[in-house]
Design goal:
Bound molecules: iron/sulfur/oxygen hybrid cluster, iron/sulfur cluster
CATH class of the largest domain: Alpha Beta
Strand content: 5-15%
Number of domains: 3
C-alpha cells in the first residue's frame, strides 16, 4: 500500500485506493494532500487558540485554509508541486500564529497538543517522508476514523462553496471558525463517537449557511436564475469551453472575450451559468457543449478550442490526447503540464488573455448535438410558479416530486438514474441540481400542464434552492414536518461537495434519503447504522423495486 484514499464514490473496489487513485491521483500527490491536511490542522490549533484569547491573526490565513481544503477535493488538483508549496507556506503561517500567541503571553503546552502543532520540516524530501504517515489510517478505531473523515469531507465541500462566495466578496467569519474548529476536533482523541456524531450534524448546519451565502453572492452579482432554453449546438467561430463552478471566473471570461470573435461555451457544472440574466446578455455566450465531467476525454477532443477549469472535476488526459496543450486551470484546480491562470488582484480581474489568444488559432467546435435543454428553476423562479405547482399538486396532476440532485460519474451502475427518470410515472416531477442531471436532462420526459418534468435548479450548491423550495411548500401546505411533503429523495453522489449537501439536508430534518449508486466506503458499519437509525438513509436497489417503494405501490 503506497497511499490510502476513500473519499469519493469511485474508490477502488468500493473500499479505498491504495496504489493509485481511480481518479488518476498518484500516490505521491495523495500523500502530499494528506500532509497538507495535517498542516491545516496544525494551523487551526493555533487560530482556534488565538480566537479564544483574542489574539489577532492575519485574516488571509482563513483563505489559505479553505483554499487548501478545496484543493484536496476529488479531481480538483493533481499537481504535486502545488501541494509541496502549500505545505511550506502552511508551516510558515502556523509558526507565525504560534509566535503571535507567544508574544501575547499565551504559552500552549505543546507536549499536550496534536503533533501537527509542532512538527517541522524544511525540504520536499522531509515532507515526502512524513506524508506517508499522516493519512486516514492513522486513526485506528474504525468508527472514530469514519466520523472524522465524514466531517473532514463535509468541510472540504463547505470550503469549496465558501471560496466561490469569497470570490464574489461574500464572507461569513463563522464558516471559517467552524472549519478550523472542526479540523482541530478531528485531532482530539478525547471526543467520543457521540461527540463526533453531533459535530457531523453541526457540519450540516454550516453547509446550509455556506450554500445560502453562495446563493446570495451569485444572485446579488448576476441576478436570479430564470427559465432558459440553453442551446447545445455550436456556431462557426473559435470557442473557449469553461468548466467547473466558479461564476466569478465566468464573468471575467465573458467580459474579456467580448468583441474578440471568440465564443464561450459551458461544460458540465458550468451549464447553469446560462440561466443567469447577467450572463445571458452576452451574444458570444453560445450555450453548453457536451455533458458531465467524465465525458471530457471525447468532448474536449471535438471541441477544438482551449478549455478552462475553474474547479473540479478534472480528468487527467490520456497520453495520446490532442487537447492536453489546450487545457488551462485556475483557482483550486491544477494539473502538472496545464497552464495555470493566477488569482486576480483585489478589485481586479483574472487575466484570461493567453486563453483568448490561444482560441483565436483554433478551429471552431465540431457539432456533437443540436437543440436545446431547459433549466433555471432555482428557488426564486420556482416560487413565481408556485400557484401553478401547488394547483397541480392539489388537483392530483403532480403526484410526487423526486429530488435527484448530486453528481454524475463514470460507473456503469449510474445508468440506473437514466432508467429511473425514464420509468418514473408521468405524474411525477424531478427536481435536480449538480451534474447528476446529465443522466436524464436530455430525455423527452415532457411536462405536466406546462411544468417541465425535470426542473434544474443549477449547480450542486443550488441544492440549497431545492431545500428552500421544500421549506416554502411545507409552509404553503401548512405542514409541520418537511417529510410530510410529497417529495422523495434519490440522490447520486460522487465527491465531497455531495457530502456537505447530504449533511445539510440531514440538518434540515430530511429523512429517508436514498443514496447511490453505492454508499460511501468511509462509513463504517456502525456509523452507517447510526445514519440508518437516525435518518432512515439507505442505498438503492433496482429501478423497478425503488419506483414501487417510492410510489408506495
Ligand atoms: Fe459534479 Fe464534479 Fe458539482 Fe462535484 S462536476 S461532481 S459534487 O465536482 O461539484 O456536481
Ligand atoms: Fe480514489 Fe476517489 Fe481518492 Fe481518487 S479521490 S484516490 S478515486 S478515493
Amino acid at each position: 500500500m503506497s497511499m490510502f484514499c476513500f473519499q469519493c464514490q469511485e474508490t477502488a473496489k468500493g473500499t479505498g485506493c491504495t496504489v493509485k487513485g481511480v481518479c488518476g491521483k498518484t500516490d505521491d500527490v495523495a500523500n502530499m494532500q494528506d500532509l497538507l491536511l495535517f498542516v491545516l490542522k496544525g494551523i487551526s490549533i493555533y487560530t482556534k487558540a488565538a480566537r479564544e484569547h483574542d489574539v489577532e491573526y492575519d485574516k488571509k490565513i482563513n483563505k489559505f485554509i479553505f483554499d487548501g481544503l478545496f484543493a484536496t477535493i476529488t479531481n480538483a488538483n493533481f499537481n504535486k508541486n502545488v501541494f509541496i508549496e502549500k505545505v511550506r507556506e502552511g508551516l510558515d503561517i502556523r509558526n507565525k500564529v504560534r509566535l503571535a500567541l507567544k508574544n501575547a503571553g499565551i504559552e500552549l503546552d505543546e507536549s499536550k497538543l496534536h503533533e501537527s502543532a509542532s512538527w517541522q520540516a524544511f525540504t520536499p524530501d522531509e515532507y515526502e517522508r512524513k506524508a506517508t504517515n499522516v493519512g486516514v489510517l492513522k486513526t485506528e478505531n474504525e468508527d472514530v476514523r469514519s466520523l472524522r473523515e465524514l466531517i473532514t469531507y463535509g468541510i472540504k465541500g463547505l470550503a469549496a462553496y465558501t471560496e466561490h462566495a469569497y470570490n464574489l466578496n461574500h464572507e461569513n467569519e463563522e464558516l471559517y471558525k467552524f472549519m478550523q474548529d472542526a479540523l482541530v476536533a478531528t485531532t482530539d482523541d478525547s471526543l467520543t463517537a457521540d461527540d463526533l456524531v453531533a459535530l457531523t450534524l453541526e457540519t450540516g448546519k454550516y453547509g446550509v449557511d455556506a450554500m445560502a451565502l453562495l446563493d446570495k453572492a451569485n444572485t446579488t452579482a448576476y441576478g436570479n436564475p430564470e427559465i432558459t432554453k440553453v442551446n447545445i449546438g455550436v456556431r462557426n467561430n473559435p470557442g473557449i469551453l469553461i468548466s467547473g463552478h466558479d461564476l466569478r471566473d465566468m464573468e471575467d471570461l465573458l467580459k474579456q472575450t467580448e468583441g474578440t470573435g471568440v465564443d464561450v461555451y459551458t461544460h458540465s457544472e458550468m451549464l447553469p451559468a446560462n440561466y443567469y440574466p447577467a450572463f445571458k446578455k452576452y451574444d458570444h455566450f453560445v450555450g453548453n457543449y457536451g455533458n458531465s465531467w467524465w465525458k471530457q476525454k471525447e468532448e474536449f477532443e471535438s471541441f477544438n478550442g482551449p478549455i478552462l477549469f475553474t474547479t473540479n472535476c478534472l480528468v487527467p488526459p490520456p497520453k495520446n490526447a490532442t487537447y492536453s496543450d489546450k487545457v488551462y486551470t485556475t483557482g483550486a484546480a491544477g494539473f502538472d503540464g496545464f497552464t495555470h491562470i493566477p488569482d486576480r488582484k483585489k478589485g481586479g480581474q483574472k487575466d484570461f488573455s493567453p486563453i483568448i489568444e490561444h482560441a483565436k488559432k483554433c478551429e471552431p467546435p465540431v457539432e456533437i448535438e443540436k437543440g436545446e435543454i431547459v433549466g433555471g428553476f432555482a428557488h426564486n423562479q420556482v416560487m413565481q410558479l408556485a400557484d401553478k405547482i401547488v394547483g397541480a399538486v392539489k388537483s392530483g396532476a403532480i403526484k410526487k416530486f423526486f429530488v435527484m440532485a448530486g453528481c454524475d460519474g463514470r460507473m456503469k451502475s449510474r445508468e440506473y438514474y437514466t432508467e429511473f427518470a425514464d420509468q418514473l410515472p408521468k405524474d411525477t416531477v424531478i427536481l435536480t441540481a449538480g451534474c447528476a442531471k446529465y443522466r436524464y436532462n436530455k430525455l423527452p420526459l415532457g411536462d405536466i400542464n406546462g411544468i417541465p418534468r425535470v426542473l434544474d435548479a443549477g449547480q450542486c450548491n443550488d441544492s440549497y434552492s431545492l431545500a428552500v423550495i421544500a421549506l416554502k411548500l411545507k409552509e404553503i401546505f401548512e405542514l409541520n414536518d418537511i417529510n410530510d411533503l410529497p417529495i422523495a429523495y434519490n440522490i447520486a453522489w460522487y465527491e465531497q461537495k455531495a457530502v456537505i449537501v447530504l449533511l445539510a439536508l440531514l440538518y434540515l430534518g430530511v429523512k429517508n434519503i436514498h443514496l447511490g449508486p453505492t454508499l460511501p466506503a468511509f462509513l463504517s458499519p456502525n456509523v452507517a447504522n447510526v445514519l440508518v437509525k437516525k435518518f432512515g438513509i439507505s442505498g438503492i436497489k433496482t429501478v423497478e423495486e425503488d419506483i414501487k417503494m417510492f410510489m408506495n405501490e
